[in-house]
Input
Amino acid sequence: MPALAAGLVLAACVATPPVEPPVVETPVVEAPVKPLSYLPDDTADDPRDLNLVGDQLPPEPFRRAEIDYPTAEPPGTVIIDTGEKHLYLVEEDGRALRYSVGVGREGFAWKGTVAIGSRQKWPRWFPPKEMIAREAARGHNIPEMMEGQIGNPLGARALYLYDGPKDTLFRIHGTFEPKSIGTNASSGCIRMANADVMDLYERVGVGTRVVVR
Output
């Protein structure tokens, strides 16, 4: 302690000003997880697109974000991890947009590499005959076709998945049950909150490669 005190006294007696340390700029490091905004789109040209944020958002832990995501798949690829219940849109420089999804319940899970064969806004819903029969056996009568509207099981947007020229009958689509995001709830389709599927819809086109794991 005496040696330290003496050093402080001597330093206080120096007439020349102390040398300022050089200014070192801290490099800006992009956050590994960047939450994305859910502001409503005031430019919507379809009145049905308005007010689909509000109570249609996925639960807080399942909000979309931009993240670090190294992968061998090229940018523009959609990767769906059914175990994690996440959909990734691969970007440049090892990044990706991450969305949370609902996936097939037990017995309806699947995997493979397909492509987006068609894109529809406010799609009509044509449930498979097997689904109609299955639901009828449970006492639920569902129509053979439903117009695109609030409450339609396909939500505000649908991306139709094809294996070559063949429609797989699986879709990436919206849902009016956002609380089902992050769960095993569908008959094999990939569910997204309407706000998320509307965002993804604007980023992908027909021919986009989709890898389901």
